[in-house]
């Protein structure tokens, strides 16, 4: 009823980082970011693993709009929530998907870069993902497992580009499916816990 003041419920703490203050009235952006990260990674990995070869092409639209733009939006709102980890992760991986989309849709760039160039591109992302594991160990078991699997995936994909190894690319695809599944699980847990306003789906949060 207009003019009636109702108490604003306390917003649930973002699942991706339980140690920072939460601004009331702003939804948890972790659910969106993890969903975008997980689904895009899973679809690409179906292609890399050779399970659905055409998935590597089908991922381009999803990677641009969901993996890229949606993750950027989630990361920007993590800045507002004072969550340094979430902001860095979502903006960075959103940018990765935008860069991936732009590169793959410009085949002349891929050809000119060659295996060495693309391998180095992926190896730098492997380095970034690896050092992001360190803060993950402070946040939750889920993120620790997700970033560890993601780092291994990037390393294998980089070596596959350097060596033109289809076998390594396939292995990376299967590990990437694990990464995608963990991301989607985190999305599911975040939205369920936020809706029920209590921890129902475990994330292995570390509050020490």
From TrEMBL:
Cellular localisation: Membrane
UniProt entry keywords in alphabetical sequence: Membrane, Transmembrane, Transmembrane helix
Domain of life from the UniProt record: Bacteria
Pfam families reported for this sequence: Gpr1_Fun34_YaaH
Keyword Membrane found: yes
Signal sequence bounds: none
Mode of membrane association: Multi-pass membrane protein
Membrane spanning residue stretches: 51-73, 85-104, 116-134, 141-159, 171-196
InterPro entries: Gpr1/Fun34/SatP-like, SatP
Protein family (similarity comment): Belongs to the acetate uptake transporter (AceTr) (TC 2.A.96) family.
Protein name: Acetate uptake transporter
Originating species: Microbacterium psychrotolerans
């Amino acid at each position: 009823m207009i003019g009636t003041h109702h108490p604003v419920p306390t917003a649930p703490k973002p699942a991706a980082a339980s140690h920072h203050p939460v601004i009331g009235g702003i939804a948890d952006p972790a659910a969106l970011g993890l969903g975008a990260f997980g689904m895009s990674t899973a679809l690409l990995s179906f292609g890399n693993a050779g399970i659905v070869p055409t998935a590597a092409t089908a991922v381009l639209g999803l990677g641009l709009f969901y993996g890229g733009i949606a993750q950027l939006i989630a990361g920007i709102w993590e800045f507002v929530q004072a969550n340094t980890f979430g902001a860095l992760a979502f903006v960075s991986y959103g940018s990765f998907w935008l860069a991936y989309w732009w590169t793959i849709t410009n085949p002349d760039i891929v050809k000119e870069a060659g295996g060495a160039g693309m391998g180095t591109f992926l190896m730098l992302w492997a380095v970034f993902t690896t050092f992001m594991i360190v803060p993950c160990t402070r946040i939750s078991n889920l993120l620790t497992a997700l970033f560890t699997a993601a780092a291994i995936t990037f390393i294998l994909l980089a070596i596959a580009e350097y060596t033109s190894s289809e076998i390594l690319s396939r292995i990376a695809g299967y590990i990437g499916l694990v990464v995608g599944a963990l991301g989607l699980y985190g999305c599911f847990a975040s939205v369920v816990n936020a809706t029920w306003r209590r921890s129902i789906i475990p994330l292995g949060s570390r509050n020490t």
